[in-house]
C-alpha cells in the first residue's frame, strides 16, 4: 500500500471532503477523519494500481479506461440489473437491453454495481469481454467490445460524488448602465416658400400702357 493523496490549501474557505474514516473510495482506502479539510486527507492505494497508472501516464500521457455505456442498480435480490443504455454505446451495439441482469463478467460473478464498474474500467478500450446475463429467465452469453470512458464522463462522475470540489464560480455581472431617456425629436421646420421672380414680358401683352399719335408742329413744341 502507498499513501497517494495528501492535499494542501491556502484559501479562507477550504474544501471539505466528507468521507467516513477508513471508507473505501474507488480503488483505495481513505484514512482521513470525517469532514476533514482536504489538506489533511490521505488515501492508501494498492501499489500495483499506482504502478499501472503511472506507467500508462508516462507512455500515453493519460489513463484509458473501458466503457460499457449502461446505468445499473441492485434489485431486491442483490443482483445487478441494467436500467438504462446510452445511445451508440458498446452496450447498445452488443444488443444489451434494459432489464437484463448481469450475472458474470469474464466468468467472475458480479457481486455489486461497484464491482462491475471496477471490472469494466480496469480493462482497456477495444477489448472484447463476455458478459453472462439473465433475460426472460434465461442465461445468455453476450460479447461486448468496450469503448473508452471519456473525460466528459469522468468529470460528470466526479461532480456527482464530490460536488464541492467542482463548483465553478459564476462570472461577475457587468455593471448596470443607467438607461438614458429617449430624446424627443424636434419638429422639422417648414421649408421657406420659393421666391417669386417678377419680370416683364411683352410676348403675351397687346399693349404697354402708351399709344402713338401724329402731332403737328404746335403740339411738338410742348
TrEMBL record:
GO BP, sorted A to Z: proteolysis
A Pfam family assignment: PDZ_2
Mind giving the lineage of the organism this protein is from? unclassified sequences, metagenomes, ecological metagenomes
Keyword field:
Hydrolase, Protease
Q: Where is the PDZ domain?
A: 52-137
Tell me a Gene Ontology molecular-function term this record carries.
peptidase activity
What protein name is recorded for this chain? PDZ domain-containing protein
User: Which InterPro entries does this entry report, sorted A to Z?
Assistant: Chloro_Bact_Ser_Proteases, PDZ, PDZ_sf
Amino acid at each position: 500500500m502507498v499513501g497517494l493523496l495528501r492535499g494542501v490549501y491556502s484559501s479562507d474557505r477550504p474544501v471539505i471532503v466528507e468521507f467516513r474514516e477508513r471508507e473505501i473510495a474507488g480503488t483505495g482506502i481513505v484514512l482521513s477523519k470525517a469532514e476533514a479539510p482536504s489538506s489533511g486527507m490521505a488515501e492508501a492505494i494498492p501499489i500495483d494500481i499506482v504502478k499501472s497508472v503511472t506507467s500508462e501516464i508516462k507512455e500515453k500521457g493519460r489513463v484509458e479506461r473501458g466503457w460499457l455505456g449502461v446505468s445499473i442498480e441492485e434489485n431486491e435480490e442483490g443482483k445487478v440489473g441494467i436500467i438504462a443504455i446510452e445511445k451508440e454505446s458498446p452496450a447498445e451495439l452488443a444488443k444489451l437491453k434494459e432489464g437484463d441482469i448481469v450475472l458474470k463478467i469474464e466468468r467472475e460473478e458480479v457481486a455489486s454495481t461497484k464491482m462491475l464498474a471496477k471490472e469494466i474500467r480496469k480493462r482497456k478500450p477495444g477489448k472484447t469481454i463476455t458478459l453472462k446475463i439473465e433475460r426472460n429467465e434465461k442465461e445468455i452469453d453476450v460479447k461486448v467490445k468496450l469503448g473508452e470512458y471519456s473525460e466528459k464522463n469522468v468529470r460528470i462522475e466526479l461532480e456527482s460524488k464530490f460536488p464541492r470540489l467542482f463548483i465553478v464560480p459564476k462570472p461577475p455581472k457587468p455593471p448596470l448602465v443607467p438607461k438614458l431617456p429617449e430624446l424627443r425629436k424636434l419638429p422639422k421646420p417648414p421649408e421657406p416658400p420659393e421666391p417669386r421672380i417678377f419680370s416683364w414680358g411683352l410676348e403675351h401683352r397687346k399693349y404697354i400702357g402708351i399709344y402713338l399719335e401724329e402731332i403737328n408742329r404746335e403740339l411738338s413744341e410742348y
